[in-house]
C-alpha cells in the first residue's frame, strides 16, 4: 500500500475486446429478430481474437440460409454506422419487456447501465465497454455454428479487420471452388484430368476443414456451401468412375465371346471385377444366350458366381443349379435361383468372403471341377 505504480492500458487488446463485446450484442439482437423461435442466452465469452455466444433455442434447427441472413444484416448495420448510447437508470424507469437480459441474473434497483444500439436494434443491460457506433466494428463474420443435443446453438464470430480478411479469403476460396466445378464439368472422360480434379478437391477440402487450426478464418456459410459443392463433385466423380468401370465388363465379355465362338459352353473368371466396387453378374451373362455360361467374380474379397443354361439344353443330368453347385462346393458357398426364376436355367452363388492369398488356387480348383 502506498507504492507508486504506472498504469499501462493495452490499447490494441482493449479495442478488440470492445469491438467483439459490441458485436456480441448485435448478434444476440439480430438472431432474435430474424428467427421467430423462443430463445434465451445461455452464455457468452469475449476475447481479443473473437467471441462466442450460446443461445438455447426451442424449435427447428437454424438453417444455413438463416445464418447467412443474420451475418448479412449485421454487416449492413455496421455500414449504416448506427449510434451506440449508454444510459444509467433505475429499475423503475425501465420497461423490461423491451430490454434483453440474461436469465437467472440478479440486477440491482439502481445504477443499471443500458446499452442501446440504433433506434430499435438492441437494448441490453450491460456494464462492459462498447464502441460509440457500429461503424467502428469495420466488418463482421460468423466463423462457426455448432448445435448441442439439448438445443443450444453456439455462434463463434469475429469483428474488425480480421472479419474483413475472412470475407476476402472466403471470396477467394469460393472462386477456387467455382473454377473447380467448371473444370470438372468440362473434363468428364479423361482419367488424367479426373485425377487432377480429385487432387484439387482434396486440397480445397483440407483448407475448408482445417483452416481455423492454421489461423485461416473463413465465414461459416462460405465454408459450408463450398463443402457442399465439393461433396456433390465427389459423388459425381464417383458415379462417373463407377460407370466407366462398368464399361470394363462390356469390353471383357465382348472380347471373350469373340474368342470363344466355337466353344460349346463358357466358364470364365471376370478379371475386371477385382477393381470394381460391385458387380452385377447378370450384366455379364447376358452376352451369352445361345449356350451355357458360368461366370465367377470377386470384389472386396467377396466371391460370387452365376450360371445360365438355355432352356433347350436343360435335362435331367444338366442344369444351371447342378452346374453351379460344383463351383459353390469348392468355395463352401450356397446357391439359389433368383426370385421368381427357374433354378434349372439360372442360378446364383451367394457372396462368400475369401482370403485373396487363397483365392487363385481355389478358383482354379473350382473351374476345373
UniProtKB/TrEMBL annotation:
Domain of life, per UniProt, equals Eukaryota
Q: Which GO terms describe its cellular component?
A: mitochondrion
Which residues are in the Alanyl-transfer RNA synthetases family profile domain?
1-169
Instruction: Please give the start and end residues of each transmembrane region.
Output: none
EC number of the protein: 6.1.1.7
An annotated Gene Ontology molecular function: aminoacyl-tRNA deacylase activity
Similarity comment? Belongs to the class-II aminoacyl-tRNA synthetase family.
Name this polypeptide is given: alanine--tRNA ligase
The organism of origin for this protein: Anopheles maculatus
Q: What is the lineage of its organism?
A: Eukaryota, Metazoa, Ecdysozoa, Arthropoda, Hexapoda
Amino acid at each position: 500500500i502506498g507504492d507508486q505504480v504506472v498504469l499501462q492500458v493495452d490499447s490494441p487488446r482493449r479495442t478488440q475486446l470492445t469491438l467483439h463485446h459490441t458485436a456480441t450484442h448485435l448478434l444476440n439482437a439480430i438472431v432474435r429478430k430474424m428467427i421467430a423461435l423462443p430463445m434465451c442466452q445461455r452464455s457468452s465469452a469475449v476475447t481479443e481474437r473473437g467471441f462466442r455466444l450460446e443461445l438455447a433455442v426451442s424449435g427447428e434447427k437454424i438453417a444455413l440460409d438463416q445464418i447467412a441472413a443474420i451475418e448479412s444484416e449485421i454487416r449492413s448495420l455496421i455500414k449504416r454506422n448506427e449510434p451506440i448510447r449508454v444510459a444509467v437508470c433505475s429499475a423503475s424507469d425501465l420497461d423490461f419487456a423491451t430490454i434483453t437480459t440474461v436469465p437467472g441474473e440478479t440486477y440491482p434497483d439502481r445504477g443499471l447501465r443500458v446499452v442501446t444500439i440504433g433506434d430499435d436494434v438492441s437494448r441490453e443491460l450491460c456494464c462492459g465497454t462498447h464502441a460509440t457506433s457500429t461503424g467502428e466494428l469495420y466488418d463482421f463474420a460468423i466463423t462457426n455454428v455448432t448445435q448441442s443435443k439439448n438445443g443450444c446453438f453456439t455462434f463463434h464470430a469475429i469483428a474488425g479487420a480480421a472479419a474483413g480478411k475472412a470475407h476476402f479469403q472466403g471470396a477467394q476460396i469460393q472462386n477456387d471452388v467455382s473454377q473447380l466445378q467448371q473444370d470438372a464439368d468440362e473434363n468428364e472422360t479423361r482419367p488424367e484430368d479426373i485425377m487432377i480434379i480429385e487432387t484439387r478437391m482434396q486440397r480445397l477440402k483440407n483448407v475448408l476443414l482445417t483452416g481455423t487450426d492454421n489461423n485461416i478464418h473463413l465465414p461459416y456459410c462460405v465454408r459450408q456451401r463450398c463443402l457442399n459443392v465439393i461433396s456433390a463433385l465427389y459423388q459425381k466423380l464417383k458415379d462417373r468412375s463407377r460407370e466407366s468401370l462398368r464399361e470394363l465388363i462390356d469390353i471383357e465379355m465382348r472380347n471373350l465371346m469373340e474368342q470363344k465362338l466355337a466353344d460349346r459352353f463358357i466358364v470364365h473368371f471376370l478379371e475386371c471385377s477385382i477393381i470394381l466396387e460391385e458387380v452385377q453378374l447378370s450384366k455379364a451373362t447376358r452376352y451369352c444366350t445361345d449356350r451355357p455360361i458360368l461366370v465367377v467374380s470377386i470384389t472386396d474379397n467377396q466371391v460370387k458366381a452365376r450360371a445360365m443354361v438355355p432352356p433347350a439344353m436343360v435335362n435331367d443330368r444338366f442344369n444351371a443349379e447342378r452346374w453351379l453347385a460344383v463351383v459353390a462346393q469348392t468355395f463352401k458357398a450356397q446357391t439359389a435361383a433368383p426370385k421368381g426364376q427357374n433354378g434349372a436355367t439360372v442360378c446364383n452363388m451367394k457372396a462368400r468372403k475369401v482370403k485373396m492369398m487363397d483365392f487363385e488356387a481355389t478358383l482354379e480348383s473350382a473351374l476345373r471341377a
